[in-house]
Amino acid sequence: AASIDAPVLLTRTGSLPDPINDELKRLKPTEIFVLGGDNAVSGAVKGALGDLAKVTPIAGADRYETAALVSEKMFPKGAATVYLASGQNFPDALAGGPAAGKAKGPILLTRTGSLPDVTLAELERLEPQKVVILGGTGAVSDEVAAAVVKTAPSVSRLAGANRHDTAIKVSVDTFDKATTVVLADGGGYPDALSGAPY
After folding, report:
1. Of 12, 39, 81, 119, which is most buried by a Cβ count within 10 Å?
2. Are the C-beta atoms of 85 and 96 separated by less than 8 Å?
């Protein structure tokens, strides 16, 4: 969303909250991307969204494949920079959202100890010049980093002592200065997720 200057809105699985429906009517989008399968966003919600705009679902068998499919949809010609974060916890991927948006590249997800085949395949398709791993070895292991090295000329890691410190490392690496800073709760994901495009 950050890479195409679009907002992220949140829904319940089984019903579209009234405030979200109102905001979509205000925005008047021509297309709504719905991320995740029916267990995340039900057919009933997709049907309600279809009354407002063209609905494009992007859903894989799991979060790793969904991330790869989002990347494929948004970056069909590849990307120079790719960010890789743990799919088992949210903070590092969220901290990397604005960096990926600025770099016009995707965030892909990995398991801590092994690189999913779908993620490796998408890395190979993207042919990046640089892959930035988000988080320490407790989030993305050295074994995963070694597998990633084969996919790009430059592989680096941004990692701090904890999720807050990692977010600082991402900020320092991405922004020389900023007139606006977005601050969100590090203990839960929804507010930071909605704020990423901002």
Report:
1. 119
2. yes
Residue 134: helix, strand or coil by DSSP?
strand
Residue 176 phi/psi, 5° resolution?
A: -65, -40
Query: Rounded to an integer, what is the distance from CA 135 to the centroid of its chain?
Result: 15
- With CA atoms as reference, report the closest residue to 23 among 41, 7, 46: 7
Residues 144, 92: contact at Cβ < 8 Å?
no
Structure tokens at 73: 């949809």
Other CB atoms closer than 10 Å to residue 56's CB: what's the count?
11
For residue 3, which amino acid is it? Answer: S
Q: What is the mean pLDDT of the chain?
A: 96
Which tens digits make up the pLDDT trace of 36-71?
999 999 999 999 999 999 999 999 999 999 999 999
The predicted-structure confidence for 167-198, as pLDDT tens digits, reads as follows 999 999 999 999 999 999 999 999 999 988 88
User: Nearest Cα to 35, choosing from 63, 5, 59, 54?
Assistant: 59
* Residue spans of beta strands (DSSP E) within the chain: 31-35, 54-58, 81-86, 107-110, 130-134, 154-158
